[in-house]
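BACKBONE GEOMETRY TOKENS
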Amino acid sequence: MKTFFVTAALAAALISSSVFAQSAGEKTGINSALGIAPKTEDFIKEAAMSDMLEIEAAKIAQQKGNAVEKKFAGQMVTDHTKTSTELKGLVSGEMKSAIPASLDDASQKKLDKLRDAKPEDFAGQYDPMQVSAHKDAVSLFERYAKGGNDPKLKDWAGQTLPALQHHLEMAQEIDKNRK
């Protein structure tokens, strides 16, 4: 029992650390599993990172994908460019530093795998990646729309959510038909 409380206290301390680096709760997925809204900085960073990854992955899919993936990828470029622009317009002051300038290592590795995939293996990489990425995005936006601190971003997350849910449905359909 004592170990549980020490562990809980340590987790709480990590989750409440207030630096612009992603919080431990968001980084480890604990917040998502518990349905906890991300801190505003985490939401901004994750939303921006997701957009960047989606756009770059879609560009690869437009070259390597089948006809269905290419169509989906075209919509991802359009929609995620739009949300990226909107997000940048909503963020001001010191929160601007939460917007990453480039992909993180994990996202870059995902892109490298897509680039390196042989044409016959591409769908096996891209399709499930899109399902996973959009599940994460839906979770992030749902949690922020319900409990975020910034009213403008909270409203935007709620307005953006239906499009992300639609992207998830499309990705699931593409992945299902691949098998």
